[in-house]
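Hi team,

Filling in the usual template for the complex we talked about on Friday. All components are listed, including any nucleic acid strands or ligand strings, so the model treats them as one assembly.

SUBMITTER: L.P.
PURPOSE: interface mapping
COMPONENTS: two
RESIDUES: 902
SEQUENCES:
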Amino acid sequence: MRLGLKGRFVVFVSAIIITFGVVLTALSVRAQSARLRHELEDRGKLLTTVIAANATDALAKLEVRELRNMISEARDQENVLDAVAFDEDGRVLTDGTVVNPRRHMLISEAALRHATGSEALLVEFDGEAMTVTKPLHLGGQVLGGVRVRYSLAGLAEDQASLARRTAKVGAIFALMGVLAAALLAEAVTRPLNEVIRATRALSEGKPVPRLAVRTADEVGELAEAFNEMTRKLRDTTVSRDYLDRVLETMGECLVVTGPDGTITRVNSAVCSLSGVGEDELLGQNCRDLFRAPEGHMSLLDALGPDGSAYGLETELLARGGEAVPVLISVGAMEENPERARSYVVVAADIGERLRHEQQKDEFVTMIHHEVRAPLTAVRGAIGLLEGGVAGELGERGQELVKIALRNSERMGRLVNDILASRKLDSGRMAFHLEKIEMMPLIEQAIDSTSAYATNHKVRFELKEAVPGSIVRVDPDRMIQVLTNVLSNAVRFSPTDGVVTVKASRRDQMLRVAVSDAGPGIPEDFRNHVFEAFARGEHDDWRHRSGTGLGMSISKGIIEELGGVITFETELGSGTTFFIDIPESV
Amino acid sequence: MASRLLLGLSLTIAVGCGQPFESSPPGAETAQSVPAGVLTIGSVSLNPTREYEVVRPFADFVAANLHDVGIGRGRVVVVGSLNQMIEELREGRVDLLVDSPFPAVFVWQHTDVEPILRRWKRGSDVYRSVIFTRTDSGVQSVDDLAGKIIAFGEPFSTSGFLMPKAALASAGLRLFNYEDPAASIPGDRVGYVFSNDAENTMFWVLKQKVVAGAVNADYFEALAGDRISELRILLTTEAVPRNVVSVRSSLDPKVIQAIEALLLEMHLSDEGRASLEEFEETTRFDPFPGGPDQDLAHILTLLPHVEEDLGVVRSPR
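RESULT (copied from the run log):
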C-alpha cells in the first residue's frame, strides 16, 4: 500500500510519539520502581523506629501489656507481617497477640548480636520481605528491642500496577499524539489537497476556485503562488479554455501543423469554410487543404527562412472540389527543446473581397467606356459651339456654353480621378520611373497651376530650392501630385493669399513643403484628409473641396514612389503639406 | 483508695441519674401481645456504656423467652460500685445479677438475693490461682514472702488478685499495697503491687522486678512457657466458680423458676448458644453441683480478707 503525504506524516509522528512514549514509560517505571522500593523500605524502617521509640518506656518498665498493645497496633499496619518486642537476652516478650505463643523464644543470633552492640537499625532481606531490628538501649544498658518483619511483596504488585497505569497513560498520550498527528497532518495536507484539486481542475480546463490562504507559512505561500499563477494564466490567455474560446470565436481559419505540414489542430472556421469535419482534417497534410501559392510547390515551400509568410493569396480546397480564395499568414512556433517547428496558419476568406474588387473593376470599366468617352464627345461638341461652328452665339448662349464646358471639364477630372484611384487600389497604375532632377518638376507644377491660382487671386512663392537634387520618380505622376497639392493650397488660400513652396533635404529625403494661409484643417477631419471622397462636414470646406479623391490619389502615388505625404495644420493660420521622396544617389 | 471511691460514686450517680438502660425483646409482637412485666438485670462496671452493650442482648433474649410468666421486656441497670448494686437490689430495682464469686457472695450476704446457677466462661466452670516465684529467689513457701513484694494482676480480678490475696491473708500474712515494685517492705508484711496484666506479672517475676506473682492457674503454664523450670509454685488456691447467677428472692417464684429453666437450656439451642457467646463468651449455665451453700462456702470464708477490696470501685469481670 502506498501512503500519501498525510499517511506518512501520521506514521512518522506516531512512530516518534510511540517510541518516545515507550522509552519514557520504561524509564519512568524503572525510576518509580526504584523509588517505590526505597519508599517501602524507608516506610518499614521508619515504622520500626517509631514503634521502638514508643516502646522504650514500656520495655524499660517491663510493661508487657503495653508492649503487647503497641506491637498489636504495629501488626495492623500495612505490609507488616510480624512484629515482636524482645528483652535484653533476645527473648520475645510479646508478639502483639493475647496468646503470645512465641513468648520467651529467642530471636536470631545475628539480631541479638547486633542489638547487644549497636543501636542502629539492622535490616535483613529475605525473599519478598525484610526484617528490621531496632535495638533499644537506655543509659548504656541494653533493654532489648523491636523486630518488625515487613513485606515487600506489595512492591511487585505496586510496580505492576504502576507499569499498567503508566502504560495506560502512555497509551492515552500515544493515542492523543496519533490523533494530534492526524489533525496536524490534515491541517498540513488540506491546503495541499486543495492545491492538488485546483491543479487538476486547471489541467482539465474546469473552473478553478481561488484557494484560501489560511496561514502565513510555506503552505500559505504556495496557495498564494497558485492563485497568482492562475490569475496570470487567465491574464495571459494561456488558459486552454480561454484560448479555445478565442480560437473558436475567430472568423479566420486557424490551422496548426507539425514540421512536415501534418495538421494537428483546426478551429471551427476551417471546418465551416472547408465543409470538412475536424476529425477528418486532423492528420491530413496542409497541402491537401491549401493549394500551393503561385510559383511554389506547396504552402510550406512559400515560407521564408524564419518559417513565416504574410499576405499569401491562395485557395482553400473545400469538400466537393470548390476552391475558396484565402489570404494566408503563417508563423513558425518552436514548441520543444528539440526546436521542432510547428506552423500556425491563419487563412482569411477573401472571396467576398475579390468579388467586390471585380465589381469595382467592372464599374471602372463601365465609367471608362460609358462615361469618359461620351464626356469627351460632349466636351468636343461644347468646344465646337464655343468656337462658333454652329453659328455666332448670343451673350446668353456663350455664357451657358462656358458653364457647360466648365462642368464637363470638372466631370472629366472626376472620372480621371476615379480611374486613377482604382488603378492605385488594384495596383494596376503604371509608373515609368526615371532619375530626374526634382526642382524642375516643382517649377513645372507651379507653372501649370499658376493660371488656376491667378483665377483665385493667389500667387506662389518658391522660397527655398535644392538645386541638383535627383529623385527616381515617374515625372508625370510626380507633377500630378505636386499640382494636386498646389491647387489644393490655392483653393483654401484667402483672396490675395500666397502659397509658399519650399524644397529641402532631410535624412536622405527630399522634402517639398507647400503652405497656405487658409483656415486650417478642422480637428475632426484631420484623420480623414487622405481618405477617398473625404470632403469635410463644414460648409466652407465642402465649398472649397474638389472631387475628394485628390489627396487620396496623391498619397497612393507618393507611397508607390517610396515616399510619404504628411501635413501640419493650425486653425486660423493655415496648413502645410510635406512630400518626402527618397533622394536618389 | 479515697479517690477510687469518689470515682465510683460519681459514676454511680451518673448512671443512676440517667434513664435506666432498657431494651425491648426482639420480634414483631404487637404492644397488645407483649406482657407488661419487666426483668431488670444489674451489672457493676466502671464502663457503663460498654457494659450495657454487653448485657443488653442477653437481657433481650431472656425477656423474650419469659412472656409466659408475664415478662415483656428486659432492662439493664449498670452501676459503678458494689454498694450501689446492693442498694438497687434492696430497693427491688434489680431482679437478676450475674457476677464473679466474691462480689456475688458479698451481695448474697448483704441482700435477699439467692445464688441459683453457675456461669461457665470460656469452657471452664471454675478457676484457681497460683502464686509463684523464681526457683532462685530463695523463697520456698508463702511464708518466705514476708518482707518481700508480690505482683497481682488487676485490682478487680478474682483469680489475679482477690483469690490469691485472700489465700495469703488466710495463711496469716499481712498484705499492703505499694505503688513501687522496688519499695522497701518491712519484714512483718508482704507488699503487693498491681501489674494489671498476667503477662506483666510473669515477666516481672522472671526479670526479678518482683519476688513473686499470682496469676490464673489456667494460664500459668502458657505464660511460663519453656521457662517454667525457672519457676516454683508456692501456692495453688482452691477452685471457685467462674461466675454466679443470683436472683432477687422477692421475685415471683414462677419467674425465678422460668429464668432458671431458660438459662439451663440456653446452650441447647443455636439461638441460645449465640446469645451466650455474645455474652462474654459464656459457655453455659448449670446448677451448683454441691448446692450454693457448699460450693460457695470457701468464698465465704475468704471474703473477710477482701471485703475492703470489694468496696473499692471495681468492675465485675
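MY TAKE: Chain B touches chain A at residues 196-197, 199-200, 202-204, 207, 209, 222-223, 225-227 (CB under 8 Å). Residues 146 and 212 of chain B are 11 Å apart (CA to CA).

Thanks, L.
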